[in-house]
Write a structure and sequence with these properties.
heterodimer; A: 12 strands; B: mainly beta; seven-stranded mixed β-sheet; globular
Chain lengths: 114, 116
C-alpha cells in the first residue's frame, strides 16, 4: 500500500541549529510532494511543494526541500531554526491512484529551545 | 479572500448517532477534500469532491459519506458513530482542472468530534 514515512517523530533543537526532517514515500508513479506545518493552535499551512523541475524547492520562512527520486525522499531543511519554528511538520504525497489521493505522514513534532 | 471555514468547531455525540460536519471552501476553489486526524497521527484522507461528485476515496467505510453543493461547499456525514471516530475532521479546498493534480490545499481549522 502507498505510504509516507516520517522517521523522526519528535525533534528538539536549540535556536540557530540546522534542521533536516526526513520523508520517504512508497509509490512508483508520478507524485507531487508537499510539506505542511501546523503551529500550536493553528490549522495546517502549506510550507512548500514540488511538482516538477528543479528538485530543490524553496518555501516560506527559509525552508527548503530536496526531491531525490531514486531514494523516494523529500527531506525538509532549514539552515538555522528559530524558536518560532516550534510546530508539527507533515510531509504529504499527492498521487494518481485511479483518482488523486493525498497521503500524509504521521508528522514530526519540532521543539526549538530559545 | 476568505479561507476555508468549518462548522461546528467542537461536537460531542453518542455512539450510534449520526453527525454532519460542514465546510465552506475558499473563494475560487472547486474541490473539497476531507480528512480525519486522530490524536498523534497525520491526517487520513477520507474522500474528495469535484463537480459535486466523489472523485477519490481513502480507506473509510460507507458510513462516511459526503456531499458537495453547487457553491462548492461540502458536508461530511458519518452514520452509526463509533468511539474510534473521535478525531479532528479537516476540510481542505483547492482548484482542480481535471487531469492535473491540485496545486496544494487550503485547510480549515477543523471540527473536533468526540464520541462518547
Amino acid at each position: 500500500a502507498q505510504s509516507v514515512s516520517q522517521h523522526n517523530h519528535h525533534v528538539i533543537l536549540s535556536e540557530a541549529a540546522s534542521l533536516e526532517l526526513g520523508c520517504n514515500y512508497s509509490y512508483g508513479g508520478t507524485v507531487n510532494l508537499f510539506w505542511y506545518v501546523q503551529y500550536p493552535g493553528q490549522h495546517l499551512q502549506l510550507l512548500l511543494k514540488y511538482f516538477s523541475g528543479d528538485p530543490l524547492v524553496k518555501g516560506i520562512k527559509g525552508f527548503e526541500a530536496e526531491f531525490i527520486k531514486s531514494k523516494f525522499s523529500f527531506n525538509l531543511r532549514k539552515p538555522s531554526v528559530q524558536w518560532s519554528d516550534t510546530a508539527e511538520y507533515f510531509c504529504a504525497v499527492n498521487a494518481l491512484m485511479g483518482t488523486y489521493k493525498y497521503i500524509f505522514g504521521t508528522g514530526t513534532r519540532l521543539k526549538v529551545l530559545a | 479572500e476568505t479561507g476555508v471555514t468549518q462548522s461546528p468547531t467542537h461536537l460531542i455525540k453518542t455512539r450510534g448517532q449520526q453527525v454532519t460536519l460542514r465546510c465552506s471552501s475558499q473563494s475560487g476553489h472547486n474541490t473539497v477534500s476531507w480528512y480525519q486526524q486522530a490524536l498523534g497521527q497525520g491526517p487520513q484522507f477520507i474522500f474528495q469532491y469535484y463537480r459535486e461528485e466523489e472523485n477519490g476515496r481513502g480507506n473509510f467505510p460507507p458510513r462516511f459519506s459526503g456531499l458537495q453543493f453547487p457553491n462548492y461547499s461540502s458536508e461530511l456525514n458519518v452514520n452509526a458513530l463509533e468511539l474510534d471516530d473521535s478525531a479532528l475532521y479537516l476540510c481542505a479546498s483547492s482548484f482542480y482542472l481535471g487531469g492535473s493534480p491540485p496545486h496544494g490545499y487550503t485547510f480549515g481549522s477543523g471540527t473536533r468530534l468526540t464520541v462518547v
